[in-house]
Amino acid sequence: MQNQIVIVPHPTEELLLIKLQKKLIRQFFTSDGLIFACQPLWIPSVFETVEAAKAEITQITLQNPEFDSDKNQIFCPVKIQSKNKADKLCDQTSTLPLVQFENATAPAAPMLKKEELFPLSLKIFRLGESSSPCNGLHELTAAVWKKLSR
Question: Which of 80, 98, 99 is CA-nearest to residue 90?
Answer without folding.
Answer: 80
